[in-house]
Design brief:
about 280 residues; mainly alpha; two-stranded antiparallel ribbon; globular
Length: about 280
């Protein structure tokens, strides 16, 4: 990767660390009712943009959508300070290709202890050599709008920080920083907790697990063992119990279904029950 692009992508960790520091504004100024609502709203909207657009649409193509959905969704997702669409897809696909090996950007299993692995997967990987993808995806790079969003990924979070300040002063800015920090750790918990704690109802060649608390924080992304078994599925909320497929809460899938009703999504890809049962673990848990 060229040096200027490495520099542009390196702005992401700086913004995340600044958001952590900015949480001190909450300690100093507190959070009123409106500011707390701003924290929740920014968390939910941006989490959906990451899960439904960055992850299930852009990276895994689990459904089809018009290009304006891609562009607007990526703008909202980029405002989370979690990088742009080219970086995000390249980084996540590298995780799937090299899952739970030393080449995995954020596996918690390569450290000397589970606690060290958790810290690496939760935050430490931001400063590791695998932060920069080895190559960027051609389909995203060939779209000039998505490519521009990727290179200017630092502008949406700064614009949202400015809007938060304009609406609520230091309290509003603190709300933005708190929401951004919580959002980062919510997404990171899929990398860390969901590879350490939870059930493995499906056979995969890695340590991915279904974790209900991570699923709650990430609007359905915590059903991570299923996702590693069926990466292209638009719904991740499935498990197998007593030899039968069971549905699990998946708000992100609900949002994608809403897009489908509105004519903004189509061809949702969900594996057949027979395929799920064929991959079910022997114990059927």
């Amino acid at each position: 990767m060229a040096l200027p692009l490495r520099f542009v992508h390196s702005i992401g960790p700086v913004l995340i660390l600044l958001a952590h520091v900015g949480c001190l504004l909450v300690v100093v100024h507190g959070l009123g009712f409106l500011a707390l609502g701003w924290v929740v709203a920014l968390y939910l909207v941006r989490m959906l943009a990451i899960t439904a657009i960055y992850h299930r649409l852009i990276t895994h193509r689990s459904y089809d959508a018009p290009r304006p959905v891609w562009w607007l969704g990526c703008l909202v997702a980029a405002s989370s300070a979690q990088m742009g669409p080219s970086w995000w897809k390249a980084h996540h696909l590298q995780h799937h290709r090299q899952v739970d090996t030393k080449a995995d950007p954020h596996s918690p299993l390569i450290a000397a202890s589970p606690w060290q692995g958790f810290l690496h997967a939760q935050l430490g990987w931001l400063l590791g050599p695998e932060f920069h993808p080895r190559r960027l995806p051609h389909d995203i790079e060939s779209d000039p709008v998505l490519r521009l969003i990727d290179r200017l990924h630092w502008l949406p979070p700064l614009a949202l920080a400015w809007l938060s300040w304009s609406l609520g002063g230091a309290e509003g800015l603190g709300a933005f920083c708190l929401s951004t920090t919580l959002l980062f750790h919510g997404v990171a918990s899929v990398n860390s907790v969901a590879h350490l704690i939870g059930e493995q109802p499906f056979r995969t060649e890695d340590a991915s697990r279904n974790n209900r608390w991570v699923a709650l924080l990430t609007l359905g992304e915590g059903w991570h063992n299923f996702h590693h078994g069926f990466q292209a599925s638009a719904r991740q909320g499935y498990t197998v119990r007593d030899g039968a497929v069971r549905s699990l809460p998946d708000p992100t899938h609900g949002f994608i279904r809403l897009l489908e009703i509105l004519g903004l999504a189509s061809h949702l890809r969900i594996p057949a029950e027979e395929a799920m049962l064929a991959r079910a673990a022997d114990d059927g848990c």
